[in-house]
Amino acid sequence: MYKYYRKVPAEKLEQFMRFRQEQLPKHCEVEGVNWEYLCSGDPARQPLLLLPGGLGTAESAWRTFNLFDQGKYRIVCPSYPAEVDSMSALAGGVAAILTQEGIDQLYVVGGSYGGMLAQVFTHRYPAMVRKLILSHTYPPVKERARRVDPALRLFRVMPLSLVKKILRAQMTGILPANASPELLILAGQIHETLDTRLTREAALNTYRRMKDFDRQNFSPADLARWQGKVLIIFAEDDPTTPELLRKELLALYPGAATHLFSGSGHATAILESSDYIQVMENFLEENDQWIDN
């Protein structure tokens, strides 16, 4: 395990390993599928759903998980089961976890791949969502759904080792060229997770969920009666969200608050972590009242 993190400074690696030791996963069975999730914080505090990115593990969001003030929030962060093949089914599983935890209304934070799931969850369960934060993510794109099919055909037949190599290149390729300890930990997580946990089914379903997301027929009218609020965070140099996609996402959520970072690309949560968390907490605390939907 440590071979994946040999470039990480000892102090930072100790923080990550301590998180692994202290945040033990809970479990929820949903339609025969075992879900793992992390849950931390006083049950009396305001619940916050933190949806991880494309790596699909709760621990991949460990830094954001730790930086949110757990004196203010009760944080729930799921891992995405390999067996689940659609964003809609992921949203249903997350709802089941929240029911198990006795949570009926909460904040939702989703970045990148998790931002796709956050949108599907909010459209399916608007009464549960009090405020929504979308970070470094994009709207459904119909044309992109068709482009997933060639990858699915290849992933079914090529050696799993090559599938892992492709996914590793995709995940690390969108990160800035920066040797910060936190980015080194993320690179190690990508390598370790793909090497030790990724199955062919998980790889295929990662893409099937993206295809399901791109087939969603969202419109600005969908949440017209919803009383929640939205914050959308971008980085102007994020290669995954060019200006056209940023405009399309903003058009889906009229009236959303926005914040634009610069110079941190797709890794704002890591490279600008203090400012990133502060922007989100300011939004969550502003005019904060529980909403009856």
Structure, explained:
With 293 residues, the protein is of the alpha/beta class. It has one domain (2-285): Rossmann fold. The chain has helices at residues 10-22, 62-67, 87-100, 113-124, 142-157, 160-173, 181-196, 200-214, 243-252, 268-271, 273-285, and strands at residues 26-30, 33-40, 46-51, 73-78, 106-111, 129-135, 229-235, 257-261. Strands 1-2-4-3-5-6-7-8 form an 8-stranded mixed beta sheet, sandwiched between helices. The longest helix has 16 residues, at 142-157. The N and C termini lie far apart (46 Å).
Secondary structure layout:
Layout: H1 10-22, E1 26-30, E2 33-40, E3 46-51, H2 62-67, E4 73-78, H3 87-100, E5 106-111, H4 113-124, E6 129-135, H5 142-157, H6 160-173, H7 181-196, H8 200-214, E7 229-235, H9 243-252, E8 257-261, H10 268-271, H11 273-285
Parallel strand pairs: 3-4, 3-5, 5-6, 6-7, 7-8
Antiparallel strand pairs: 1-2, 2-4
